[in-house]
Amino acid sequence: MAIPILNHLDGNSCAELRNFILHKTTSGSASNVEGKIIYDTGSDTIKYYDGSSWINLSGSTSISGNNYASDLKIGRDADNLIDFTTDNEITFRVGGNDELRLDGGDLSPETSDGLALGTASLMWSDLFLASGAVINFNNSDVTLTHSSNTVTVAGGTWATAALTASTGTFSGVLKTDDTTDATSTTDGSLQTDGGLSVAKDAIIGNDVYLLTDSSVLGLGAGKDATLTHDGTTGLTIAATPISIDSTGELHLNSTTGDIKLQDGGADQIAFDLDGTAGEVIMKPAVDSDDLVFQQYDGTEVIRVEDDGSLGLVGNKLNIANSSSDVVIKPLTDAKDIIFQQYDGTTVLTIEDNATANIPAGKLALGGTAVTSTAAELNLLDTAAANTVVNSKAVIYGSSGELAGTLSTASQTNVTGVGTISTGTWAATDVGIAHGGTGQSSAAAAANALLNVSQGGALSIGDGSDTITIPGSLVVTGDTTYHNETIRVVDNNTLQFEGATADSYELNLTTADIASSDKTVTLADLTGHVALFAVAPTATISSTPAELNILDGATVVVGEINYLDLGSTAVGTAIASKAVVLDANKDYTGLRNFTITGELDAATLDISGDADIDGTLETDALSIDGTTITTTAAEINLIDGGTARGTTALADGDGLLVNDGGTMRMTNVTTVASYMAEEGASLREKVFVLNDSVTGVASSDNITYVVTHSLNSRNVMVEVIRNGSNSGDYATVWTDVTRTGDDAITIVFCSAVTAGDYTCMIRKIG
């Protein structure tokens, strides 16, 4: 709603009304008050009421006679007028923009390419131009100039959809943008009812059609070369001579007939190329003629005679229907005969030295490829059955036998061998006499290394023999002794090695017994020796004297097992085990330690929680190193009793407050200042008019709903223009409605920028 003003506004002859808009209504709707001024929206005129009727101010003023003004502007409003303020210039303004200018002898738009002369629906009737007139496009890019019944086009490219003239001469390019394909003589983009003359080269982007059955395409100044079409005989090429020059392949295609070569119109050679699987035939077109191939100079090279024989010049190759031999040889000495595939790959070379050379992997016998190399095949050269030949293949005899001397052998039947250096014997038993390793004597054989790798049994000597091994004996499998005495020498120690080859895991050593030999008998049990009934890795350090302390003890086995602690139990609690203090008499790991008497300790350090169900009596108390000096009576003041003190408060008196979970001391003065500020916030509120601010809502930046929550309609509201707007912080008038006890509505006459205005609200009473 509008702001009601219930008294006169007196400007004291100095205050101006700025940026005001007259009341927009119609004369029929406005109240008839003498002197009232309105803007009639029905007629878009300014009117006033003279006491009896509404008078149009726009029609009440007339201008007559000679009236001149250097700042004259005539129009409906500031955006639509005729401007005479510039000397020798008249400007026409429409819609707030200067559009047309009359300057001296020129009538021009205010800006280049700014106005159109007519529209698609509102067109001028005629345009009259004087002789010599020029129509100028884009600052003389293209011009149309009139002179003596002639229009000259200059510049650019002339393009037209239709052009009719007896003779036209163009200095540039005649172009049509139409892309229609021609299907007749009257529908192409470029048409002529007569002939077409082209003095220079012509380039056609697609097909060229000559539509008559007798069409002729002539080439040359005298048309001595022609392509003539006949509806019956087809196309005839006539020229003297005719040459076909192709840098690539040359294709002659006859879909249903033969390709024929003629002489004087008579067929001479015919090519039967039917395009299907089968034979391709080249034959003379006249019976009884030979087919002759000649060199350029006429020298005959090949002749296919009518009787079917093929002849080569010099009888170097003559294949005929006779009993004579067929000889293939080069015409020049010292030349090879090379057979190649279509792609040039050589498959056979007959060299001049009478050698047939076949590339590796290219030989096949009966369809099976021969993969042996020449070196492998040469191993058969001079090889003989049942005979060993050095560096040659071995061929067994008919019974699998092989005679000769071998350096190595793995055969089942060998009649004679030399020295066997390596090899594997398939026999189940091997007997070796002295010297059997290839040595010349038994003494030499004793020092030789004997390696036997076989799946059977190895027997060395008999029951009466003694076998001596001066070096080490390594046995990777099990060792079985039958009725033998095992003697261990070298400091009387029997050593056992574990899975990892390091120091020996177990040494069995006997002392040097001065009296009779001793016997140790193991019980027929599985497990540990009773004396060492602990973990296999544990060490018992007790002396015999210490163990004898248990002699005569009445403890049972379960009680002794309480001492089964392990090395890690010293000073540390283990469930169901005895307590053993460490070297410092310390002990850790106890839980729920209960005593019924007093706990006497010089110091007591508890790192965890302490749960005391009874009364805690202490002479002094400290927390985290800070001594508690508060007396018991002072602490009891926190107890919510009914007694109240009467001590007066002073500015310096302290008050105990909870500061975010921490108890702190403050004074009465600080509390009083805080309470005064909180009281003011309950009476006064300030809001920036922006819908992103808490308590402010607006959907159009015209109407703002402000929720102040002061619980009263008795509030004073002031709207100021803040620093982000103009910086003057001036008070502005708006429509303010107190819509409830906790909210007001502020309405501007038009949309404002969010954040440019601030609302201050003060509760009264």
Biggest sheet architecture: 5 strands, antiparallel
What proportion of the residues is helical, as a percent range? under 10%
Structural class computed from helices and strand pairing? mainly beta
* Structural Rg: 65 Å
Q: How would you characterize the overall build of this protein?
A:
There is one protein chain. It is built from 6 helices and 41 strands. About 5% of the residues have low confidence. Helices cover about 5% and strands about 25% of the residues. Among the domains are: about 35 residues, no CATH class; about 80 residues, no CATH class; about 30 residues, no CATH class; about 80 residues, Elongation Factor Tu (Ef-tu), domain 3 (Beta Barrel).
Topology overview:
Elements: E1 24-25, E2 37-40, E3 45-49, E4 54-56, E5 73-77, E6 80-83, E7 89-94, E8 97-103, E9 106-109, E10 134-137, E11 142-147, E12 150-154, E13 216-219, E14 225-230, E15 234-238, E16 259-263, E17 266-272, E18 281-284, E19 291-294, E20 300-304, E21 310-312, E22 318-319, E23 337-340, E24 346-350, E25 356-357, E26 364-365, E27 368-369, H1 374-378, H2 442-446, E28 493-496, E29 506-509, H3 544-547, H4 557-561, E30 622-623, E31 626-627, H5 632-636, E32 654-659, E33 662-667, H6 668-681, E34 684-688, E35 696-697, E36 703-707, E37 715-721, E38 731-732, E39 735-737, E40 743-747, E41 757-763
Parallel strand pairs: 1-2
Antiparallel strand pairs: 2-3, 3-4, 5-6, 6-7, 7-8, 8-9, 10-11, 11-12, 13-14, 14-15, 16-17, 17-18, 19-20, 20-21, 21-22, 23-24, 24-25, 26-27, 28-29, 30-31, 32-33, 34-41, 35-36, 36-40, 37-38, 37-41, 39-40
